Amino acid sequence: MSLSFDRIKEKLNILADAAKYDVSCSSSGSVRKNNTNGLGDSSGMGICHSYTEDGRCVSLLKILLTNHCIFDCAYCVTRKSNDVQRAAFKIQEVVDLTINFYRRNYIEGLFLSSGIFKSPDYTMERLVAVAKKLRLEENFNGYIHLKSIPGASDELMREAGLYADRLSVNIEVPTISELKLLAPDKKHEDFTKPMLKVKNEIIQYKSEKKIIKSTPKYAPAGQSTQMIVGATGESDKDIMYSATYYYKTYHMKRVYYSGYVPVADDSRLPAIGTQVPMLRENRLYQTDWLLRFYGFGVQELLNNDHPNLDMDVDPKLGWALRNMQYFPIDINKADKSVLARIPGLGMKSVHKIISARRFRKLNWEHLKKIGVALNRAKYFIVCDSSKWEHRDMEGAKIKGLILQNSTGKFRKEYSNQLQLF
Amino acid sequence: MNSTKTLIYDGSFNGFLTAIFVAFEEKAVVSDIQKHSVCQNGLFSETETIFTQMDKAKRVWNGIHKKSHSAIKDIYFAFLSEHKGIEILLYRFIRKMFASDTSIASDYSDGLVLKISQLARSVGREKHRMEAFVRFQLTKDEIYFANIEPDFNVLPLISKHFRSRYADQQWLIYDIKRKYGIFYDLNRVEIVSLDLDDIHTNSINKSAHFTDEEYNYQDLWNNYFKSTNIKSRINLKLHKQHVPKRYWKYLSEKKAV
Ligand code: SF4
């Protein structure tokens, strides 16, 4: 008994360690109700059961099935040429770990990825087998995220979606030319083919479900992908235009941005010991958020004149400072979409303002109570008060004033857990 | 003639709603509403003991519900905060609600409304934290057991979540501070009180109540947690923001080894 535990522990150490560079931690967006009195229930909102010491959410058991790999992608710890310890789980071992962690309320579910051993299909088949076993034998309704192995067949991708909540292929390298350089074994199509298949299956299953109620769910939490940031000299514009393309073309639920953690001495890549670009990563997440929820177009935030995001101010503030002609905005009159563009105002505050202004005209005191970050917002708005902070100041002057009053807080705490605006 | 009164109730939510009913019915000037266990008579006010009556409680509940869906949740959550003087705040809030034609629950520029919504939000946050941080340990008689010590009285709020998630295992969550627990026996959830010989949170010492396998899984989880770290990204300040230190005692991954 304890002998096999020791062996499992060893495998877990190796295979969790190799999986941690995938930053996706989401366990939300799925609806899998426990109608059968089985185990688990995923009803929309994912829970973070713990946080790593770098502040990332721990909600899934995130492991590789194996870190044996026949490929040699330069940016990856698991690459063939890397001198690391290798291990492989048995299918049943992953099932047991998942169930036992889940029953103790450690996790929301499983995130299973893998190095490619033998062939993409051989690998994908095993990932699917784990998910199938969990669903059919263990009656498990928790969250399952499977990695789509680049190059896996359509048939396997179809089956994967029947058991998984989410599927993802990480494109990792945002530009095709860099991909050729860093992952010579892989073709761009190897990534996009499974994405396309999943997208089409989702559309098809959804439309069938409208007609036949009993149609099973197919990947109800959709698909996602990840890009490495800072490995190849790409610009923020390259990254966000690519992200926008993947959102549109493959209906991605999420694109993740992962600051490159150097794992190789390779002249094509930043040297070991180079700092992880965490602030940049955070700025990209903020931009992603602005595109998805705040009504911004990508060209407004990044373009040929402005190919990289400001590091000293958040992207919304940066945009506002370059576009002072739209301000000041009247808090008591402006539409939701206009309010959303004011620096210092999150969507929650926008909704609160719209609710509260039905009762009375809002002044600075009200806004403060509602929780608006006035130190930034005050330069861009007018409210029910004669005091107005703008006084025809230039963008550069305003930026100076804001930075003066927010040193420390602003620059030191960056995370990809979206400490936004 | 109106007199000022202090209403004394049994501490339950239905008792509180009954008190609200009485306050409205008697048109008394209510100076305070107090739990039986903490009652302190005001020198110059009369007291009246309220006996919980479900039909009266229900009428108040329905009345509020009709006025506003979101308000009823805020009121219940804020009540569970056990904030000192919460009863009289809620009483004023409810009076204000009934006096106004429009829904006041979203008027965040009003101080009282804001206070209630803030309290409700803190309780909501604690509820989520407990749903996340409960760590079950498997006892030898096959019950998944967890101790908690929440800031607010959230057991009534988390019961449904655990019931639907762990429908095929027996579990028991015990609030050490308030000395009661909820136990699911594969059929329904019951309120229980226990004579605990020991507090079983995140202890390094093994207890005879739990299986060996239990400690093996804790060990695996502990290991897993450590290997999720990326050293070059470490940010302990952020880490503590997400998992405030007072919760570490629950978490087996935080066990000092
Ligand atoms: S195929 Fe995947 S696991 Fe293998 S080296 Fe490339 S990125 Fe790493």
From TrEMBL, chain A:
| Residues forming coiled coils | none
Q: Which UniProt keywords apply?
A: Iron, Iron-sulfur, Metal-binding, S-adenosyl-L-methionine
Matching SUPFAM superfamilies, A to Z?
Radical SAM enzymes, RuvA domain 2-like
Q: Has keyword Iron-sulfur?
A: yes
In the UniProt record, the signal sequence range is none
- Record flagged with keyword Manganese: no
**Cofactor(s) required for function per UniProt:** [4Fe-4S] cluster
What this protein is called in its record is DNA modification/repair radical SAM protein
Source taxonomy lineage?
Bacteria, Pseudomonadati, Bacteroidota, Flavobacteriia, Flavobacteriales
From TrEMBL, chain B:
The cross-references to Pfam families, in alphabetical order and at most eight, read: DUF4130
Q: Which InterPro entries match?
A: DNA_repair_put, DUF4130
Residues in domain DUF4130? 86-253
Domain of life, per lineage = Bacteria
What's this protein's name?
Answer: Probable DNA metabolism protein
